[in-house]
Amino acid sequence: MAGDPSELYTSAFGGFGKYGNYREHKGYAEEGPIEPAPDMPNSLFPTNAPLCRFFQQGYCSRGERCSYMHIAGHTIPVSNVTRPLPVTQQYLVGQQQVPYQMLQTPSFNQMMPGYTYPTGQHFNAPVGFAIGVPNPKMFPPPLNIAQPRTNHSATAPQRMKKTFSEEVQSRYAHVKFETLVGEIYSLCKDQHGCRYLQKRLEEGAENHRDIIFSETCSHLAELMTDSFGNYLCQKMIEVASDEQLMVIIDTVASEIINICLNMHGTRAVQKLIEHVRTPQQTRALVTALGQNPVALIKDLNGNHCIQKCLTRLSPESNNFIFNAVTKQCIDVATHRHGCCVLQRCLDHASESQKVQLVTEITYHALTLVQDPFANYVVQYILDLGDTRFTDALVRRFIGNVCLLSVQKFSSNVVEKCIRVADPETRRSLVDELLNKERLDKLLRDSYANYVVQTALDSADPIQKQKLIDCIKPLLPAIRHTPYGKRIQNKLSKEGIPTGTNGYTSVSPTPTNLPSQTAAYSGNDFPRSWNGSNY
Question: What are the PUM-HD domain coordinates in residue numbering (predicted)?
Answer without folding.
Answer: 156-495
